Amino acid sequence: MSAPIRVALVDDQALFRAGIRMLIESQPDLSFAGEAGDGIAARQLVAQSRPDVVLMDVRMPRLDGIHATRDILADAADGGYPPPRIVVLTTFDLDENAARAIRAGASGFVLKDADAEFLLAAIRTVHQGNAVIAATATRELFAHVAAGQERRPAPAAWAELTGREREIFRLAARGLSNAEIAAAEYVSEATVKTHVSRVLGKLGLRDRVQLVVFAYEHELPDQA
């Protein structure tokens, strides 16, 4: 059997932390790696316990979840250890703070009142390197917060993508699943998965959530 997924929790409400800890400890494939009540304590926790996944509240005293996300990922890069996948916990759907946290490096967001099964599925999904929310929801989130913002010019890395990779990028940024992209491009899902992985690698992106962020933040010449 593979090692359990080590999950850390960062939230300023002790009662909420206790409930989530009980949920995580009830799962045979998960283990609880510790908890913190603010972003500063979260940095120390992650550096010491090296969790695989961090559940991060957005609004906290001393250091909020947005800055804590950025700092934790920077600490991992500086320290030479694998960065954790960070799932932002937010009270409000289409929360601009959740979008900012994703831009800071989080792999997605989950509403704090989500069903327990959804949260558990999110932990397992993000540990596999995928987004924790539907790409369509991600697209709607960034369309909401990007209104009125100017896009930046495409970076040099965009020119490294092949024509097929740009088309796959465009479809993924619209929120299509691998199966839907495969049907549109008349290729297998395995081929789509390979193309998406190459796109992420060339653009320096961690997952499809950040792919959507990239699409909304840049003026891409071949993008419809």
What's the gyration radius in Å? 18 Å
Please trace the helix and strand order, writing H or E for each element.
EHEHEHEHEHHEHHHHE
How many helices? The count is 10
Please tell me the overall pLDDT: 85
Q: What's the β-strand tally?
A: 7
Helix content: 40-55%
Low-confidence stretches: none
Distance between the termini: 45 Å
Structural class: alpha/beta
Trace the largest sheet across and list its strands: 2-1-3-4-5
Major β-sheet annotation? 5 strands, parallel
Strand residue percentage: 5-15%
What overall geometry do the principal axes of the alpha carbons give?
globular
Modified residues (4-aspartylphosphate): 57
InterPro entries: CheY-like_superfamily, NreC/VraR/RcsB-like_REC, Sig_transdc_resp-reg_C-effctor, Sig_transdc_resp-reg_receiver, Tscrpt_reg_LuxR_C, WalR-like
Pfam families: GerE, Response_reg
Keywords: DNA-binding, Phosphoprotein, Transcription, Transcription regulation
Describe the structure in your own words.
With about 220 residues, this protein is an alpha/beta fold. Helices cover about 50% and strands about 15% of the residues. The protein has ten helices and seven strands. The protein has helices at about 15-25, 40-50, 65-80, 95-105, 115-125, 135-145, 165-175, 180-185, 190-205, 210-215; strands at about 5-10, 30-35, 55, 85-90, 110, 150-155, 220. A five-stranded parallel β-sheet has the order 2-1-3-4-5, sandwiched between helices. Strands 6-7 form a two-stranded parallel ribbon. Helix 4 links the parallel strand 4 and strand 5 (about 110). Helix 3 (about 65-80) packs parallel to helix 4 and helix 7 packs across helix 9. The termini are far apart. The model has no long low-confidence stretch (mean pLDDT about 85).
